[in-house]
Amino acid sequence: MKLGGFKKTFAGVAIMAMVLGFQNCSDFALQDQVLYEQGLFDSQTALDQKALPKLTNVESDQLVFWSKPGNPSFVDKGIFYANQTSMVIAVDRSITGKIISVTSGANQEDAFISISGGKVRATHASTTSGQYTYMEANLPSLGERMIIAAGFGTKPTEISLLINGVVQAGTIQKVLEADSFYNSMKDVETGGTAGQIYEYVVYAGDSAQVPVLTKGELNVMSRYIATNNLIENVIFDPSLANEGKDGGAPENPKFAPVKSLLDAKCVTCHIHSSNLKNMTETKAIANNWVRAKNLAGSKLYTYLKGNSVNSSGTMPTDGTLSAAELQAVEDWINSIEN
After folding, report:
1. Nearest CA to 330 among 307, 302, 309, 310?
2. Residue pLDDT, tens place only, 159-217
3. Omega of the bond leading into 316 within 30 degrees of 0 (cis)
4. Which of 150, 213, 332, 337 fits 86 for a cystine, CB–CB 3.0-4.6 Å?
5. Tally of structural domains, the chain
6. Are 77 and 185 spatial neighbours (Cβ–Cβ below 8 Å)?
7. Which residue range forms the structural domain that includes residue 74?
8. Of 212, 203, 106, 101, nearest to 154 (Cα)?
9. Are residues 309 and 223 in the same domain?
10. What DSSP string runs through 120-168?
11. Could you tell me if residue 33 is inside a domain?
12. Are 84 and 184 part of one and the same domain?
């Protein structure tokens, strides 16, 4: 499968719109539409080029299962260790029941996609029976087959659901109080009735190292698998345009000076810490190094503040922080959204 296959739809629309626009240059609305379509195409292309090599790398620890038509064990790494998971599956629109599940033992489902009563549901389940959170959306109205993608973060409210590439905006529903996922050995099961599963891929995640797939990455694989199976109506969702251009949500600008500080005064000693060397705001939160708008509860801040007054046992060990540097850390933590 070549990346160029993704480009046909938007490229065709953009070129046709350009031709029509040039025939009537006074039609500013049409010219705006040309720019809009070209912007989407550029965003889609940028996202595909960045994400697809990683997502299709069979040597990646993140890619744990991939069942293709004619090759059901294309990737099968057996039991895997994770506290997050992402999945993309191509199925008949008529299928019902639980179509794919990630389990952590006998009768212990962690996350699954199910279809019932014209609804698609992505469920984050606790190992304790009867506790779960979920997001659901309507089945697509067109096509005999469809692509469903879901991402499940560590927390019970961290659920993403895409249908035919479109990000679903439903609210997270709760039945009792579901538990957060914890790192454990997991496996994948597929099922369903009254329909067929054509292809599926599953990614493992670790909140401290490899995060759950972004919505943009789920969209990339949705379109990729749709192309493999000749499934129509699977699109690049315009809401992902910023992720396509920037490779993700924009970084908190207040983190930039903190990143420079860590690189200059911390990484030199902690050279083997991949988390610190490639620190992001997301990683800092996932590792419980900082808490949004909570200086006292942020371990990183406690260490750095201690050093600003030369306390022992704090970091960095080879010098103190200036008032401006410590203030930058405070400003960043206080700006983090919950």
Report:
1. 302
2. 999 999 999 988 888 888 778 887 888 899 999 999 999 999 999 988 767 778 999 99
3. yes
4. 213
5. 2
6. no
7. 62-236
8. 212
9. no
10. EEEEEE-SSTT-EEEEEEEPPSS-SEEEEEEEE-SSTT-EEEEETTEEP
11. no
12. yes
